[in-house]
Design a protein that fits this description.
Layout lengths: L4 E6 L4 H16 L3 E5 H7 L7 E2 L10 E6 L1 H12 L7 E5 L9 E2 L3 H9 L4 E14 L2 E8 L2 E6 L6 E7 L2 E8 L1 E6 L6 H4 L11 E7 L9 E4 L4 E6 L6 E5 L3 E4 L5 E15 L5 H9 L5
Helix pairs in contact: 1-4
Length: 292
């Protein structure tokens, strides 16, 4: 794959991410590529006027790759922008955060990764996206996509959530918990992992349904086929504060009698790799497996 035009976006409040974006833009320009900077990132990095800019909503338009500088949250934001647009540019993450399960490239290896990118020494992984819809009085009240997870959780003043769970029209359980996570294999190392859910290799075509602090200890995480259609009917008190969140980036307040439907999205997201590092290499590094 020949890379000529590259979109760059950084976490606006992280100086290290903005500095890395500036260095990357200059490196790409010197190598003959054409950097395009997300508008707010260009402003915060002091690059306004030096390079062409693009609105976040059009981040993947007419570019060969989108590079996100920050942590996993920054890459998820860029992924949301691309997934909710008609564009299909692959994404590459440069990690300036802490763990960085999604951001493949470390700060020290950024220049080497950019050179590999320009030389076409890359591979593409496709990742499943979730589609979540809130149905209210028979009409679509909200709809959004997620790369990691869709979560029903209680607000600051809410009590334990109760909800009925169905999969492919069949009743599964009545859940009493602080919330419920529906995660992709990609998102299995995110909130799902913190809540005690399993790690799922991204190559596995599956979803994970994990309760958050369940009232009944026999209410355990369940691995489902990616083709499953999950329906959640929360029992919501009119005074309760219950929120449906998508990748922790977008939220919808739920009302009594809302129905939440979660399925596999019609499209996928593409992640670009510039190294031969495997999923287990990443897990050993991030989770300190094997360290003495």
């Amino acid at each position: 794959m020949t890379v000529l035009r590259v979109a760059l976006i950084a976490r606006h409040t992280l100086p290290a991410a903005l500095a890395a974006l500036v260095e990357a833009a200059d490196h790409l320009a010197r190598a003959g590529a054409s950097p395009v900077i997300e508008v707010e990132s260009a402003t915060q990095a002091g690059l306004a006027g030096r390079f062409p800019t693009v609105a976040r909503e059009a981040l993947g338009r007419d570019v060969d790759v989108v590079i996100a500088f920050g942590g996993d949250g920054t890459l998820l934001d860029a992924a949301s922008a691309v997934a909710h647009s008609p564009h299909d540019a692959p994404l590459l993450g440069v990690n300036l955060g802490r763990l960085g399960f999604l951001t493949e490239v470390g700060r020290a290896g950024m220049t080497e990764a950019l050179d590999a990118l320009l030389a076409g020494q890359t591979s593409i992984e496709t990742r499943l996206l979730l589609s979540g819809t809130v149905w209210r009085a028979g009409a679509r009240a909200a709809s959004h996509l997620a790369l990691n997870d869709i979560v029903i959780t209680r607000g600051a003043l809410s009590r334990m959530i109760e909800m009925d769970v169905e999969v492919d029209g069949q009743p599964v359980s009545h859940v009493k918990a602080d919330g419920l996570i529906i995660a992709t294999a990609t998102g299995s190392t995110a909130y799902n992992l913190s809540a005690g859910g399993p790690i799922v290799d991204p190559a596995v075509d599956a979803l994970v349904m994990t309760p958050i602090a369940p009232h009944t200890l026999t209410n355990r995480p369940v691995v489902l086929p990616a083709t499953a259609r999950i329906q959640l009917r929360p029992a919501i008190d009119p005074q309760a504060d219950i929120v449906l969140t998508f990748d922790g980036q977008f939220g919808v307040s739920l009302r009594p009698d809302d129905l939440v439907e979660i399925t596999r999205a019609d499209r996928v997201l593409r992640l670009m790799r510039t190294s031969s590092r495997t999923h287990f290499d990443m897990l050993r590094e991030k989770l300190k497996w094997g360290n003495t």
